[in-house]
């Protein structure tokens, strides 16, 4: 049977992905504006090559937006942005940018890295870039290195960068911890709102949502589904004779049997007091009747025990397919009517009944 808790986690994950996608686009747009603007300034200051390099980086960032809109692959977009940012900062350190101010942009790198990737990868990339910066600082005669930095600048640059990186790391670790706790809490609350406390099955509210989703899927794709409305027989008697705790125990034991009998794709919910509703996707009326009958037999042959006393438990059920109903409300009305007929016919049975005709065809009445 489908698990309401994993559904809550999936919903939270999808919401977060959508938020990150929006933020990434905003960030990329801002980066393009900055790079184009500073490139233009460099152009007018006579630093033609520097201007072209910055514009090329602006185009590369633009390409990551195009890449994401075509593939919807967020991890790949993030990886591309990390590579672009690392190359840009390396270029700024090696060339010195305008008036040797290039390394100042390096301070943008730590928070950006921790936003784009996890703490471990972010730290690894940051250390690697710092190593390259240290080599550039130490060996200004290397090819592609056009900047010379003073000893004081180098010391202060690494000291402040180390301070900023550690600070960013601690903040990000705290943010992640708080975020995980919040996601867990939200999922727990959402799970509680969808679950019946006594049996652990979905509650009526969750089932109504599932029914609405399945009905719109049926309208779109034409895939049939069926429902089974189950009522435990003479349940009041169990409560009266054995006590309310015994009744609660029967409801829990029955839920266990129900979960064992139905398929993983089916959903079962506690519909009301001692009533349960099964939603069976891609299931015809006859298939649903077969499953309901199997469940009835299983319950009738199971020993429900409470404090060493065996309790008499049987069920009656109504079954209906969406193929025989115009609307969801009509489906629920019909299945309720079938349940009523099963009760009227003497309980411990399923309605409509299945008949084997002379030509071997199976029909329901
Ligand atoms: N122990 C327990 N009993 C419940 C719970 N919810 C509903 N009930 C009881 O279930 C009983 C249902 O009784 P009825 O509606 O008369 O139905 P029934 O005795 O099952 O008779 P039929 O449905 O006609 O077979 C009532 O006594 C309710 O109090 C619950 O959560 N725990």
Describe this structure in words.
The chain is elongated, with a radius of gyration of 33 Å. The protein has helices spanning 4-44, 48-71, 74-95, 109-116, 119-138, 151-194, 204-221, 235-242, 244-261, 285-301, 328-344, and strands at residues 225-232, 267-272, 275-281, 304-306, 309-311, 315-321, 350-351, 354-356, 362-364. Helix 1 (4-44) runs antiparallel to helix 2, helix 1 packs antiparallel against helix 6 (151-194) and helix 9 (244-261) packs across helix 10 (285-301). The strands form three sheets. It has a five-stranded mixed beta sheet. A two-stranded antiparallel sheet has the order 4-5. It is an alpha+beta fold and 365 residues long. The relative contact order is 0.08. It folds into two domains: 4-191, no CATH class; 204-364, Alpha-Beta Plaits, CATH 3.30.70.270. Guanosine-5'-triphosphate binds at residues 198, 231-237, 239, 244, 247-248, 251, 273-274, 343, 347. Residues 198, 231-237, 239, 244, 247-248, 251, 273-274, 343, 347 line the site of guanosine-5'-triphosphate.
Number of strand segments? 9
- The strand order across the widest sheet is 2-3-1-6-7
Helices and strands, in order, run as: HHHHHHHEHHEEHEEEHEEE
Largest sheet: 5 strands, mixed
Keywords: Membrane, Transmembrane, Transmembrane helix
Catalytic activity: 2 GTP = 3',3'-c-di-GMP + 2 diphosphate
Pfam families: GGDEF (PF00990), MASE6 (PF20966)
EC number: 2.7.7.65
